[in-house]
Amino acid sequence: MPVAETDPGPSVAKLETIVSLAKRRGFVYPSSEIYGGINAVWDYGPLGVELKNNVKRAWWRSMVQERDDIVGLDAGILMHPQVWVTSGHVGSFSDPLVECDTCHRRFRLDELPGVEGLSATELQDEGIVERLGLVCPVDQGPLSAPRRFNLMFKTHMGPVEDEGAVIYLRPETAQGSYVNFKNVQMSSRKKVPFGIAQIGKSFRNEISPGNFVFRMREFEQMEMQYFVRPGEAATQAFDEWLPARRAWYERYGVTPERLRFREHAPDELAHYAKKAIDVEYRFPFGWKELEGVHNRGDFDLGSHAGASGENLEYFDPVAEEHFIPWVVEAAAGADRAAFTFLIDAYHEEQLEKGTRVVLRLHPDIAPYKVAVLPLLKKRPEIVELCHTIKGDLQKDMMAVYDDTAAIGKLYRRQDEIGTPWCVTVDVDSLEDGAVTVRDRDSMTQERVPVENVKRLLMDRMAAAREA
Ligand code: ATP
Fold first, then answer.
1. What does the pLDDT read at residue 12?
2. pLDDT value, residue 119
3. Which residue(s) pair with 279 in the sheet?
4. CB 330 within 8 A of CB 241
5. What is d(CA 357, CA 347) in angstroms, rounded to the nearest whole number?
6. How far, in Å, from the CA of 171 to the mean position of ligand 1?
7. SS in 3 state form for 287-352?
8. Quick one: pLDDT at residue 2?
9. Ligand 1 — pocket residues by CB below 6 A?
């Protein structure tokens, strides 16, 4: 099992620091806060929605835009209920739940203190609570024996709320790609191997959500299903996708030492998986899954073909062969990825005049690419030039204007939200038609003619993307 040689220690940022920055600067707020909030649902504020959109765009760029063999799809959240029976979710998409007899809090058995290191088989032992003497981690009360708790949210379709109208909010986007396999393959005329990529909301009634946006009940996934010939081709595709997915996080700035692979033990594998390796990140609360790469064999198309009666075989015109393609899946979370970029980018630097908080976000991920700032907001000509520059820049990138503080403070504010460049207009700009471009990371400043600013920023963004 390939894991990091050395543990790089806890991440630079504490969870509380990130949560507080996220709230204060408008990245993430608790949902329905004025009513006391709702557990495990979070809302993205003005900066958060930019950040998450950028993460999704960067994923789409590498998965769809830059590839000839992958196409996109946006399937519905609500699907035919049979989909979830066939996929195995109705039968086995569950976690082991235990309940405290005194406070009635519910916990995921595998997350209780005292069960670390136990195998999936050991966790299935009905007498485990007694055998290990497990108690409620909150009030030390006695715990019930574990029972399976299905994580799918149920609702009713149509006006009649009876059993026949039950449908589910999807717990993953992947099934949309399987049931559309034939549609996509025929309409896009793709030949195996090819992939279907999807980004969209998924819902899981998690027993113990937490750690901010790490585990939510409503979240967004970025999943790609790659359809290949059976057997060896799937092993090969798996071996190629795994490092490629890790490289994507590194390409967008995640510290390599804070990423590692973790292979699922045979008794931990999901019912559909032949092999599964997680890309893990060293979160402030420990090593946790960021993304899973799975070899799912022919389970998905084979099961849906069997249950629906549709022929989901692919005909290979070269080998003149019919077969059910195998699937290699790269399943990531948009929220977890955005969270990771945020944590990893967070830096505190000691400067002569105090501490500088800076988010060293990759320019493609940063919410704003540039801030246009006046050195003197009392001079209308300076403010006007700022607005002209900003108006021109915002045709091509997210740009912001701010004049609500002195320049030093304005720079700090932009550093704290990760804006890679600031453009400052001063009195000299009115004479020489040049402005100061300040770099977030090096804090260096250079004088640039106004007409060259956009080109300079676009070139820097392109260079960062290629780096
Ligand atoms: P975990 O072990 O953390 O519950 P999982 O193995 O169930 O995750 P998958 O079903 O493989 O996760 O889902 C793919 C990706 O979707 C995960 O790697 C993660 O990034 C994201 N994801 C899954 N569940 C959640 C959740 N409750 N909140 C936020 N993101 C999630």
1. 67
2. 82
3. 261, 291
4. yes
5. 6
6. 10
7. EEEEEEEEEEECHHHHHHHHHHCCCCCEEECCCCEEECCEEEEEEEEHHHHHHHHHHHHEEEEEEC
8. 41
9. 172, 204, 206, 215-216, 219, 221, 289-292, 331-333, 335-336
